[in-house]
Amino acid sequence: MQRSYFVVPAPILFVVVAGAATLLGRLWPLIMPDSEGLFYGGWALIDAGTVFLLWTAWLMFWRKTTLNPYGKPQRLLSEGPFRVSRNPLYIGMLIMYVGGGLLWGNVWFFLLMPLLVAWLQFGIIRHEEQLLRKHFGEDYIEYCRKVRRWL
């Protein structure tokens, strides 16, 4: 029997975890020392993550494949950011998430990050990998041998 997954879209997952970190930061503040470097470093990471995310999304649109975790992938991408990670969209979002934690100086962002990564890994990526194996078979398995899941 095929297992069915309900996949929370990754942007919603990031908003939920960042919202929880923000709420926890207000209830039980764990604040980093106030530093101009953290502020600018946070913005730099948000900018870098946004560029990486947009590059990945642009490539997916250009190659006419889906961003939808429920959609049928049209082609297996192995160029651009997909040369270094099987999940470049999530890498971009994680870079932005870390940037937000630095920008707001909220330690809760970092304490909740392992939960976020586990949720991504077991709640979204597992589903996507099964879908890609189903659609691309041996080509996807070979791609997995060459490219790491994260970095």
Percent helix, as a range, is 55-70%
Low-confidence stretches: none
Question: Order of SSEs, N→C?
Answer: HHHHH
**Distance linking N and C termini:** 33 Å
Count of folded domains: 1
Structural class based on helices, strands and sheet pairing: mainly alpha
User: In what range is the share of β-strand residues?
Assistant: under 5%
The number of helical segments is 5
Number of DSSP strands? 0
Arithmetic mean pLDDT: 91
Sheet bearing the most strands, described? none
Radius of gyration: 17 Å
| Overall outline | elongated
Could you provide a short overview of the structure?
With 151 residues, this protein is an all-alpha fold.
What does this structure look like?
The chain has 151 residues and is mainly α. It has one domain. It is 66% helix and 0% strand. The protein has five helices and no strands. α4 runs antiparallel to α5. The protein starts with 9 loop residues before the first helix and ends in a 5-residue tail after the last helix. The relative contact order is 0.19. The model has no long low-confidence stretch (mean pLDDT 91).
List keywords for this structure.
151 residues; mainly alpha; elongated
Secondary-structure map:
Blueprint: H1 10-27, H2 36-62, H3 88-104, H4 108-136, H5 138-146
Helix pairs in contact: 1-3, 1-4, 2-3, 3-4, 4-5
